[in-house]
């Protein structure tokens, strides 16, 4: 059976289409396996009460890459936090950078993988609004069990009793003074009883005074009568 020129041309055409299709598939596969910036992800996490920045490489080709993390302040100045090497995998290979990050801080993460990738992860990493370690509240001192003395209440000005004046305290009210005569000084001894009474002595002195008085009257009247006769 002879092969015609038409058959040969048809076979060559089929082989050419197959080869082109194979090349396209291999090109797409190599592109899919090539390292690119989308294979990297950065996160701010907490390791207990310490902060940490984790960069994960999911490059299936396993191309070695260098990860560099920078802290950006509000003035645009950057401070390098750290630099590490990583080799990606389909499951993802993480690298951690210990960093006591502050809430809402901004970090720039740069990736360098051979001559394939040399750029930053976009957008920049912004940390959560809550820090890993919260300040413990200041303990409140326990209340004292000893009760505080209550302030003494002063008596109102109107409730104080008025002090009587000297004239009021010394003068007796009208109508209350007694008109009865006060007892004589000598009468006080008449109410006394017992062995110390002076009643007999006083009676003797009184009798002697009566005799002396009677004698004086008698002699006085006698002298007046003698003068009248002369």
Main beta-sheet strand count, sense and barrel state: 5 strands, antiparallel
**CATH architecture verdict of the domain at 37-126:** Sandwich
Shape: rod-shaped
Please compute the radius of gyration using only Cα atoms: 68 Å
Distance between the termini: 236 Å
Element-level helix/strand string: HEEEEEEEEHH
Strand proportion? 15-25%
Residues in helices, as a percent range: 25-40%
Tally of helical runs: 3
Q: Indicate the mean pLDDT.
A: 75
What's the name of the CATH homologous superfamily of the domain at 37-126? SOR catalytic domain
Structural class: alpha+beta
Identify low-pLDDT runs.
Answer: 23-31, 165-178, 184-195
User: What CATH first level of the domain at 37-126 would be assigned?
Assistant: Mainly Beta
What is the third-level CATH name, the topology of the domain at 37-126?
Answer: Immunoglobulin-like
DSSP strand tally: 8
Describe this structure in words.
With 230 residues, the protein is of the alpha+beta class. Helices cover 28% and strands 24% of the residues. The chain has a domain of 90 residues: Sandwich (Immunoglobulin-like), CATH 2.60.40. Strands 3, 4, 6, 7 and 8 form a 5-stranded antiparallel β-sheet that branches. The chain has a 3-stranded antiparallel β-sheet with strand order 1-2-5, with no helix packed on it. The protein is rod-shaped. 10% of the residues are buried.
Q: How would the blueprint of this fold be written?
A:
Elements: H1 5-33, E1 40-47, E2 50-57, E3 64-72, E4 78-87, E5 93-98, E6 106-113, E7 117-120, E8 125-126, H2 166-170, H3 199-229
Antiparallel strand pairs: 1-2, 2-5, 3-4, 3-6, 6-7, 6-8
């Amino acid at each position: 059976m002879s092969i015609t020129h038409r058959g040969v041309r048809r076979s060559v055409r089929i082989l050419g289409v197959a080869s082109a299709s194979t090349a396209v598939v291999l090109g797409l596969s190599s592109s899919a396996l090539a390292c690119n910036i989308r294979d990297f992800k950065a996160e701010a996490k907490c390791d207990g009460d310490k902060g940490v920045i984790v960069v994960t490489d999911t490059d299936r080709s396993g191309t070695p890459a260098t990860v560099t993390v920078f802290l950006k302040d509000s003035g645009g100045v950057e401070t390098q936090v750290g630099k590490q090497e990583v080799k990606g995998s389909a499951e993802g290979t993480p690298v951690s950078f210990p960093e006591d990050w502050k809430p809402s801080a901004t970090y720039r993460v740069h990736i360098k993988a051979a001559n394939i990738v040399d750029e930053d992860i976009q957008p920049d990493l912004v940390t959560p609004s809550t820090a890993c370690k919260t300040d413990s509240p200041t303990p409140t001192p326990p209340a004292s069990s000893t009760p505080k003395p209550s302030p003494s209440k002063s008596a109102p000005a109107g409730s104080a009793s008025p002090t009587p004046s000297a004239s009021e305290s010394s003068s007796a009210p009208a109508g209350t003074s007694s008109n009865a005569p006060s007892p004589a000084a000598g009468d006080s001894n008449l109410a006394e009883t017992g062995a110390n009474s002076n009643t007999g002595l006083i009676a003797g002195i009184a009798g002697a005074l009566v005799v002396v008085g009677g004698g004086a009257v008698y002699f006085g009247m006698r002298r007046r009568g003698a003068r009248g006769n002369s």
